[in-house]
Amino acid sequence: MSFPKFSSSSTMPALLLVAAVFVAAAWVIPAWMAFLLTLALAKALVVLGVVIQMRAGLVSFGQALFYCIGGYGVGLASQYLGVGDAFVLLALGTVAAIALALLCGWLLTRYREIFYAMLTLALSMILYGVLVKSSALGSTDGFNVSPPSFLGWVPEGDARKRTLYLMTVVLATLAAMGFHRFMVSSLGRVTEAVRENEIRVEYLGLSPQRMLFANYVLAAGVSALGGGLTALASGHIDPDMAFWTTSGEFVFIAILGGTGHVAAPFIGAIVFSVVRTFAIQEAPNTWQMTLGIVLLALVLFLPKGLWSLVERSKKRGASA
After folding, report:
1. Residue 4 resides in a domain
2. Residues 6+ apart with CB under 8 A from 114
3. What is the C-alpha end-to-end distance of the chain, expressed in Å?
């Protein structure tokens, strides 16, 4: 599998411009659309974690593990620790996921290909089984997350949804910019080299496992951030956040958006959310089939993802 280059001098300004448009839209778009975009951007953060692992040659079928840890970290801190600030809640969920990744990473990064994929899936399903059997955590129903405060301010109604939307846009932009810098850095380049030839990387005096371990921990952190934002926006968490179909959805969105640019996961997540929402609205009894047909067509005609359309337009503009 080949990957287009991440480096581009216009990436940072473009990300800031798009973020400014999303921020300005907060006072124009209806509340339901703000909620939809909030969830889409939150899931895109998880997909970003999947993508950076794919660029290193690893496919995680269990990224929902950290998505769920982030969500439950927010919920448990809110319900049992009495923490109400959204930023503190997100930080606690992210730290919990990173701590778990530090424990699991050294084992998982020893494996490659299907073995890595299945081990990540197994860990996610173990968490799902624990949550389902835990009556203290709501078992299969989960539990609600209390509305958060924002540095002491407690908005109500549409103001809370708008604030969560704006916070998600800002955090997603910062994450995208940070991961862009990571992918064009020496460490980011080395992880791609590991995908191509681990032995040559070892000849350079570097440890492929350490490179992949750093990648794994970064992916865990950003995925937990997405899970925490989802918990705050939806106001509810349940074990399905760790289920294998959730992980499969993240992998599918990664393929849908493509891996050629840091913006691709966000494009894929937004398109996926919009298509699924309208499929449920227009065909409530057959929405799964409708969604499958539409997304299958996109994958068949755009095998490199939606980002390939941007690459094509750039090539046409350069040749014109």
Report:
1. no
2. none
3. 29
Residue ranges, the chain, pLDDT below 50: 1-7
DSSP string, 253-285: HHHHH-SSSTTHHHHHHHHHHHHHHHHHHH-TT
**Residue 170 near residue 150, CB atoms below 8 Å:** no
- Res 320: pLDDT: 58
Per-residue pLDDT tens over the stretch 88-98: 999 999 999 99
**Which pair of tokens denotes residue 300?**
């068949």
Angle at Cα 296 formed by Cα 292 and Cα 302, nearest 5°?
A: 150
What kind and span of H or E run contains 175?
Answer: helix 158-183
Q: What is the pTM of this model?
A: 0.91
How many domains is the chain built from? Answer: 1
Give how far the C-alpha of residue 233 lies from the chain's centroid of Cα atoms, to the nearest Å.
15
Whole domain around residue 48: which residue ranges?
Answer: 11-319
Tokens 């994958």: give the residue. 299
